[in-house]
Amino acid sequence: RQFKQDLVKQIIERGVTTRADFYALVAEHGETRIRNEGKDTEYISVKLPGDAKGTNLKDTIFQDDFIVRRELKKPPLEA
């Protein structure tokens, strides 16, 4: 959860407003995989150093509504 909160802060501070820039930012933190590529449900997963498995970034705040348009239609980080 802390990683996700830090990532949101970086998105805002760096002015990330495209999915490509978001994916590049996430890639700075570890090995990434694009899930459901090309579909409406596409999201990125990142395996952080020292973690046994990846962290899925499919929360509302990591979708185009926020990344591109800075709008939130649901709570930003689901539990």
Automatic annotation (TrEMBL):
Name of protein: Putative Relaxase
Lineage: Bacteria, Pseudomonadati, Pseudomonadota, Gammaproteobacteria, Pseudomonadales
